[in-house]
C-alpha cells in the first residue's frame, strides 16, 4: 500500500515526508477491523512525531496520523460482520491497562492512553487496523469533514464538557483560534449554548471565528489581554478558559477568569514553564485542569452529535495524498483555520 512515511526525525518535518510503499496491515485480530482510508487529517501532534516527541523514543521510518475516515473492508474472527462496508471515524486513543498495587486507593484520574499515530504507526496510509470499540459509524457525511472530527473534537469535548462542566450561557475563552482543538471547542460552545470569546494574532482568524459563532474576538499582540476579556463580559470574566498555548497566555487566562472559574489545558505549544498567580487562584477559588484525549463513551456521544448535524468540523484545506508533504508544511506555517486534510481517494 501507499503511505505518507516520515523517513527520519528532523526539525523541518515536511522535508522528511514522502508518499512511499509500506507493508499492508496484517489480517485484523478478534475485535478489530481493517479500514480503507478515504481521508485522514493532520494534528499538531503530527509535527511533534516528525520532530521527536519529548520523553518518547520513536523509531524511523514511521507513519503518523491519528484522525481518519474510511470504509471497513475486513473484520477479525468473532467480530460482528455487520461492520463490513460501514463508513467510520476513529478514536485513536486506546486506554493502557491499569496495574494497581495491593494498597493503592481508588484513583479519580482518567485513563492513560496510547495513540495510533504517536505510540504506534498511524493512519496516513491507504489502510489501517483499529479496535471496533474505537470506531463510530458516520453515514452520509463528507469524508473530508468526518476525518477532521476525531481527536480534536474528542479532546475538546472531554475537556470542556466532562471536566470543565460547561453550561449554557457560560462565557468560554479560547486562545489561539485556528488550530484544530480551538475550532472544535468553538463549535462545541455554539452547539451547547455557551458564549465563546476567542483570541488570535491574526485578524482574519478572528473575523472567521465571528462568522462561526464567537461573540467576541481579541487580537493578541503578546501583552495582557485579560482587560479586554473582562470588557467583553461586562467586567465579570469568563467561566472557562481553554488554553493550549501555555507559557505565552496562561497568566492572562487566569486573570480573565470569573470567581469560581476553570482554566483547562490540553497542551502547551509555547512552553510548559508558565508564570501564574496563586493568590488569584485561591482568593477566587479557581480550578486548573489538565486534559488529554478521551474515552470511547465520550466519542460515542460526540459521534451522535455529528450524525444529528449538531457539529460541523472546520476544514481549512484538502491535499491529495501525493502532496502530503505540502500538507505538513501548510500546518507547520500556522496559517490554517481549522483542519488540514489528506485525500486518499
Structure description:
- The chain has two domains: 2-149 and 313-343, Medium-chain alcohol dehydrogenases, catalytic domain (Quinone Oxidoreductase, Chain A, domain 1), CATH 3.90.180.10; 153-290, 3-Layer(aba) Sandwich (Rossmann fold), CATH 3.40.50.
- It is built from ten helices and 18 strands.
- It has helices at 44-51, 143-147, 150-163, 180-192, 203-211, 226-232, 250-256, 278-283, 296-307, 324-332, and strands at residues 2-6, 17-21, 32-41, 62-63, 67-75, 87-90, 93-95, 113-115, 127-131, 135-137, 171-174, 195-200, 216-219, 238-242, 257-265, 287-290, 315-320, 339-343.
- The strands form four sheets. Strands 3, 5, 6, 9, 10, 17 and 18 form a seven-stranded mixed β-sheet that branches.
- α8 links the parallel β15 and β16.
- α3 packs across α4 (180-192) and α6 (226-232) runs parallel beside α7 (250-256).
- The protein is globular, with a radius of gyration of 20 Å.
- The two termini are 13 Å apart.
- The model has no long low-confidence stretch (mean pLDDT 94).
Amino acid at each position: 500500500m501507499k503511505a505518507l512515511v516520515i523517513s527520519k526525525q528532523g526539525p523541518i518535518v515536511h522535508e522528511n515526508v514522502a508518499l512511499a510503499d509500506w507493508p499492508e496491515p496484517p489480517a485484523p485480530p478478534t475485535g478489530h477491523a481493517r479500514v480503507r482510508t478515504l481521508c485522514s487529517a493532520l494534528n499538531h501532534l503530527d509535527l511533534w512525531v516528525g520532530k521527536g516527541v519529548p520523553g518518547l523514543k520513536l523509531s524511523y521510518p514511521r507513519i503518523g496520523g491519528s484522525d481518519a475516515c474510511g470504509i471497513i473492508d475486513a473484520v477479525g474472527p468473532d467480530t460482528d460482520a455487520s461492520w463490513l462496508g460501514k463508513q467510520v471515524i476513529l478514536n485513536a486513543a486506546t486506554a493502557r491497562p491499569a496495574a494497581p498495587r495491593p494498597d493503592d486507593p481508588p484513583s479519580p484520574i482518567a485513563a492513560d492512553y496510547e495513540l495510533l499515530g504517536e505510540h504506534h504507526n498511524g493512519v496516513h496510509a491507504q489502510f489501517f487496523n483499529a479496535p471496533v470499540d474505537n470506531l463510530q459509524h458516520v453515514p452520509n457525511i463528507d469524508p473530508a469533514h468526518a476525518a477532521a472530527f476525531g481527536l480534536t473534537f474528542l479532546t475538546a469535548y472531554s475537556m470542556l464538557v466532562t471536566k470543565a462542566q460547561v453550561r449554557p450561557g457560560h462565557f468560554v475563552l479560547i486562545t489561539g483560534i485556528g488550530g484544530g482543538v480551538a475550532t472544535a471547542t468553538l463549535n462545541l460552545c455554539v452547539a451547547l449554548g455557551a458564549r465563546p470569546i476567542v483570541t488570535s494574532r491574526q485578524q482574519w482568524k478572528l473575523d472567521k471565528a465571528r462568522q462561526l459563532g464567537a461573540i467576541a474576538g481579541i487580537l493578541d499582540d503578546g501583552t495582557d489581554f485579560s482587560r479586554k476579556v473582562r470588557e467583553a463580559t461586562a467586567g465579570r470574566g469568563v467561566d472557562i478558559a481553554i488554553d493550549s498555548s501555555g507559557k505565552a497566555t496562561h497568566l492572562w487566562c487566569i486573570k480573565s477568569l470569573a470567581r469560581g472559574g476553570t482554566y483547562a489545558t490540553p497542551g502547551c505549544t509555547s512552553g510548559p514553564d508558565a508564570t501564574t498567580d496563586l493568590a488569584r487562584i485561591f482568593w477566587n477559588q479557581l480550578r486548573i485542569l489538565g486534559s488529554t484525549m478521551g474515552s470511547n463513551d465520550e466519542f460515542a456521544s460526540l459521534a451522535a452529535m455529528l450524525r444529528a448535524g449538531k457539529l460541523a468540523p472546520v476544514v481549512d484545506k484538502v491535499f491529495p495524498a501525493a502532496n502530503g508533504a505540502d500538507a505538513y508544511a501548510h500546518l507547520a506555517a500556522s496559517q490554517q483555520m481549522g483542519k488540514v486534510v489528506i485525500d486518499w481517494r
